[in-house]
Amino acid sequence: MRERNDVTVHARAFDQAAEVYEASRPTYPREAVDWLVPAEAKHVLDLGAGTGKLTRLLVDRGLDIVAVDPSAQMLGVLERSLHGIPNHLGTGEDIPLGDASVDAVVSGQAWHWVDPALAVPEVARVLRPGGTLGLVWNSRDESVDWVAELGRLIGGDVVYAPANTPPRVGPPFGALEIFEVHWSQELTVEGLLDLVRSRSYFITKEPDDQIAVLDSVRRLAAEHPALAGRALIEMPYITECYRARLPLQTD
Question: What is the pLDDT of residue 129?
Answer without folding.
Answer: 97
